[in-house]
Amino acid sequence: MSLSCAMIAIDPPLARACPSTSRPSLPDTPGPPAPQTIFASERLPVEPAPLRCRSPHKTNAPGVMFVPPWTPETLGTCAPGRHALATPELFLRTATHADALPLLAAGSDPEAQRGLGWPAHLVVPAWRRRRALRWRMAMRPSSNGAPAIPLPNLFVALDRERPRLAGALGITPVSEGTGRAGGWLAPAYREPGPMAGLIEAWREIAHRHLGLTEVRCSVDPGNEVAIEAVRRVGLTAAETEDITLDDGRTVPLVWHVSRDTSRAQCAAGQGPDWTETSPWAAVAGPSPQGAVEGARS
């Protein structure tokens, strides 16, 4: 169950941040401590060991800006280079490279891929997905020295009751004042309520944090959960369009539009993650394929 948006499926920093999914064994180098997401049906008596993952970027890489960690006093507030939003059910923050693997794992199952259509090299295989979806997600974007290199315009959505990964959303600019949004939910959260909460969150981030006046998202007309969610939120349905996904399939999608002309912004303003002169441009490859090949080299 997912909103569909090509920009999330091919985000170059996300592709580069995630290790190759075809490796037969796990890296043995220290990685980020376990974020927290498990399937609702898997109530494990003992917390499993974290999946270790090597970061492709060093913390002292020249020209790379890092997201400063939140403190208890600033948790849930925005600052230059990061955005945060708290809703009754979710806590959203700017994603970092340390979040890449669980984010991809949450959308790699066959049900999600029917709507997302990622290229094969971004789909996390089942054996690795099971491990990644047991990670503990941190409310803060960095810990144990893991680099907090942000993934521009991509956000993690955490369950506020149990800081597990509920989903992900992203917003990409199209033109001045307009953008496209999309996202997906982890398997345990694929219901109209959490989906509506995710849509409300991206509307808030897009309009109140990034200053956009119009944001569009596309929904699979066969996705009953997403259709019910956009109905609850009250998005305006626009045209239907046939879109070719990255896996080569062509699917019909219905565009929905959210408009807000107030353009109120948070304390961080649009932030460097929204400008074309982003200091993080060096970590994003010129194309998704180039980003993945660069990460493997």
From TrEMBL:
<dbReference type="InterPro" id="IPR000182">
    <property type="entry name" value="GNAT_dom"/>
</dbReference>
<dbReference type="GO" id="GO:0016747">
    <property type="term" value="F:acyltransferase activity, transferring groups other than amino-acyl groups"/>
</dbReference>
<feature type="region of interest" description="Disordered">
    <location>
        <begin position="262"/>
        <end position="297"/>
    </location>
</feature>
<protein>
    <submittedName>
        <fullName>GNAT family N-acetyltransferase</fullName>
    </submittedName>
</protein>
<dbReference type="InterPro" id="IPR016181">
    <property type="entry name" value="Acyl_CoA_acyltransferase"/>
</dbReference>
<dbReference type="Pfam" id="PF13302">
    <property type="entry name" value="Acetyltransf_3"/>
</dbReference>
<feature type="domain" description="N-acetyltransferase">
    <location>
        <begin position="90"/>
        <end position="235"/>
    </location>
</feature>
